[in-house]
Model the fold of this input.
Amino acid sequence: MKCMSSLQVYSPSEYTHVLVICGPGNNGGDGLVAARHLHHFGYKPSICYPKRNTEPPFAGLVTQLESLSVPFLPVEDLPVQLSSDFEIIVDAIFGFSFHGNLRPPFDSLIRRMVSIKTQQRTHEIAAVVISVDIPFGWHVEEGDICGEGIEPDMLFQKWLGDALEAGVKEPHYMVLSTAGKDAKPSSRMVSLEGVNKDGFVWHTNYRSQKAREISENPHASLLFYWGPIKCQVRVEGFVEQVSDEESEQSFSSLPRDIQIRPTVSKQSTLIHGREVLHQQYKEFEEKYHDRSSIPRPKHWGGYRLIPEFFEFWQGEESQVHLKFRYYAEEIDGRRVWTIHRLVPQLAESASSL
Done:
């Protein structure tokens, strides 16, 4: 389950108490399965299951959980502020197939989860909320209208995961665009080596054109396009070099043949012929034939783009495509994202963005 993969980053020693809120459908069933896994992984789950499904698969899961002494809590016994009793909330209420208006008690439960976002923004102690399917705070048909449901880095990673599952070839490749002090843009494909809330990381030669331009103008943009799932993401932000320690770690994790390449390659310089590179590669291979460790060349390392802007585009069969942007703002010394939905180009084909 993707939900359990997300939970694994939260250690049960620090995030002990988990509340799983289950709806009456399949999402609720997934929540019950998640609660069972949580119990076996050392967490202390509690379940709120106000509209129980009595069909055999669901009833069987309830019986298993009761035999494990996992408590089932009625809505009226839950605290008004869920964060006061729980470190993690698992939202297993509704999925994307849900239609209609929210009814009690799920309307109030969702409002309580949405309020956790406000707690996070005001520096109060707040629980982590993880969704089995549709993120908390989203309109079930219109999506994240208010930008309260999901951070842009999380949405990017979800789309990247969708691209991997869809079999998109080399989904980690991205267009990196830079411009030097002359303001002339240049673009090239590079491989995304890491992404998290802190930014997007790639590796390169510090003597290359892109490195020179970044030193003159430390702002850049990234572009990802995954055709089979009709999704595009554009990211803009400030670029910094990663630490030497981080570059050393990345280099040491590379296969030896990949380690040799940046060592012998003087990227973006003139060369008399490809045979020169082949000869240098062979000589270097012979030098380290005893399998001793290859030192990282000082001119090779990583860059990190710290996002200030995200733009997400999703193609629709109707040709009325979805397009929205996240902007970073500093509020009380803390980065906060605001979202704006945009009118997309009404294209004749889904390839027009």
Observations:
- The chain has two domains: 2-148, 151-353.
